[in-house]
Amino acid sequence: MQFITFLKKEFAHVLRDRKTLLILFGMPIAQILIFGFALTNEVKNAKIVVIDYAKDVASQKLVTKLEASQYFEIEKTVLGADQIDKSFKEGVIKLALVIPSNFGADLAHQNHAQIQVIADASDPNTANTLTNYISSIVVDYQQELSRSAGISFRIVPETRMLYNPQLLGVYNFVPGVMALVLMLVCVMMTAVSIVREKEMGTMEILLVSPFKPLMVVISKAIPYLLLSLINVAIILLLSVYVLDLPIHGSILLLFVESTLFIITCLTVGIFISVKTASQQVAMLISLMGMMLPTILFSGFMFPIENMPVALQVISNVVPAKWFYIIVKAIMIKGLGFSGIWKETLILSGMTVFLLIVSLRTFKIRLA
Question: Does the residue 1 lie in any domain?
Answer without folding.
Answer: no
